[in-house]
Amino acid sequence: MLKIESLNVKYGDIQTLWDVSLEVNAGEIVALIGSNGAGKSTLLRTIAGLLRPHSGRMHYNGVLLNNKSPNRIVELGISMVLEGRRLFPKMTVLENLEVGAYLKEARVHRYSTLDWIWEVFPVLKERSQQIAGSLSGGEQQMVAIGRALMARNKFLILDEMSLGLSPLLVKTIFKIVTQINKAGLSIFNVEQNVPMTLRTAHRAYILESGHIVGHGEARSLLKSPHVKEAYLGLS
Amino acid sequence: MGQTLVFGILNGALYGMIALGIALVFGIMKYLNVAHGSLIVVGAYGSLFLFRLGVDPFATIPIILVALFLGGAVLFLSLFNRLIEFPEATKIKNSLLIGFGLMLVLDNLATFLWTGDERSITPSYSGITFQIFGLRLPLIGLSGGFLALLLISVLHLFLSRTYFGKAVRAVSQDHEAASLTGINVGRTFLISFAISVGLAGIPSVLIGLQSFSPTAGIQWFNKGIIVVMLSGIGNIYGVFPAGLFLGIIEALSVFLFGATYREVTGLVVFVLILILFPRGMLGSGAES
Questions:
Q1: Domain boundaries, chain B
Q2: Domains of chain A, with CATH numbers?
Q3: How many whole angstroms separate alpha carbon B89 and alpha carbon B190?
Q4: In a 3-state reduction of DSSP, which class is residue A21?
Q5: Which chain A residues are closer than 8 Å to B169 by Cβ?
Q6: Across the interface, which of B163, B174, B186 has its CB nearest the CB of A88?
Q7: Closest Cα to residue B74, out of B102, B109, B97, B100?
Q8: Nearest-neighbour CA in chain B from A130: distance (Å)
Q9: Each residue of A23-43: pLDDT tens digit?
C-alpha cells in the first residue's frame, strides 16, 4: 500500500532523514519506534505533504506522493492523526467529526460513518455537543482518531497517540486501534511507548537519528537485545 | 439623549459591518488588510456610478457585493497569496505593507478618476425620517441597521451550518490539521478573502448615502480596526456589539462635549479598554 524508497528530508541545511525505506501492506499494523528527535514526526509530516522530501520516492497504491498537497494526499486515501491531537478546539465534538468528512465521498456517507464512530467511542456520542477543547486528554485523542476515520480512508497513520495518557487509557486506545485494523484499515503507528506498540503491531521499523536501523516481526523485535536495551530498559 | 442613542446605534451598526470584513480576514489568515476602507470607498463610487444610471442605491448592493467579491479574489491571487506560508508575525507585517500600498494606489486612482471632491448618493428618499415616541429615525439609517442584522445572521448561519463555513472555522483554528482532513487551505483562504472584500459592499452603499471622498478609506478602516480590537481579535461574534459600543460612545461624547471631540473620545475609550481588558472587551478573544 504505502511504499517509501530511500527518502531524504532536510530542514534547511540540516538533514533529518537519511535514506529511509519502508513498506506497509494492506491489512497490516506496522509500527515505527524511535526515541525523541529520531525523525519520526519528520517522516510523517513528509508523507502527509506538509514537508517536501529532498530526494527519494513515496508511493501509495502506485501513485507517487512526492510534491502532492496535504489535501490531495487525504483524497488519495491516507488519513493521519497528528501528534498533540490537533483538534479544532472551539468547535464541538460533532463539528470536529463532520469536518473530518469534508471530502465528497466521505460527506455523502457521513451519517453511517458517524454511527460507526459512536460504536467505537461510545463516550463521544454523549459528548457530541461539547466544545472539543474542554474534553479530557483521552477523549480528545478519541476525537482525533474519530476525525481521521470520518474520511473513510483505508490507511491510517497515528503519531504518538499514547502521549500524555494514563496507562489505562493507553490500553483502551491500543485495543481500539486493533479493532479498527480488524475493520479493514491498514495502520502505520508511530510511537514512543515501545512495549505496547510492539505487542499490537505485526511488523515494526526502528528509526534512530534519521536512519532505519532495524525492522522485522514486531514480536521478535520485542526479544531483540538492542530493543530490550535501548527501548525497554532491560539488559 | 434618546435621540443621541439612536444615532449612536445606527452608526455603530455601520462600524460593526466594516469591522466584520476586517475581522474575518484577520481571524482566518492573520492578514491585516489596511486597504479594506479604501475598497469600501471604491465600492461607494461604483454605487454612485450605477445610481447616476438610474439604479436605486439599495439595488446596487448585490452588484457592488459581487464586483468587490471578484475584485477581492483577484487581489488575493495577485498580492496576498504569497504570504500564506509565512509565520504569523511576518504575515501581519507583510500584509500591512501590501495593504498600505494597495490603499495608496486605490485612493489615488479614485482621485484620478473622480477628482478629490466630496460625493454623496442622494436618492429622493434620503431625507425621510419616522417619528416614534418622539425619536427621529432616519429611513436610511434604519435600513442600514436592518442590513447589519441580516449580514450578521447570514454570516452566522454560513459559519455554523454550511460545510464550507465549518471548513473556514477549522482552517482558522488549525490550518495544518484542517489540511489533513482534505480541506484545500489555499482555496479556503481565497474564498474567505473574497467574501471579506465582498462584505464591504454593504457599508460601501451606506457610506455612499452619507458622503465620501477618495481619501476617506483610512478613516473607515480606523473605525473598523478599533472595533475589531475592542471585541478581541478573532472574535467574530463580538464584532457587532463592539461596533454598537463605539457608535454609542461617540454619540454620547457629541452630546456631552460637542462634535469636535467625537474622534478623541472614541480613541480615549479604546485605549482605556485596551489597558483594562488587554484581550478585548468580550471574553478570551479567541472564539471564531
A1: 2-117+125-215
A2: 1-77+156-162+186-235 (3.40.50.300), 79-153 (no CATH)
A3: 20
A4: strand
A5: 88, 90-91, 95
A6: B174
A7: B102
A8: 15
A9: 999 999 999 999 888 999 999
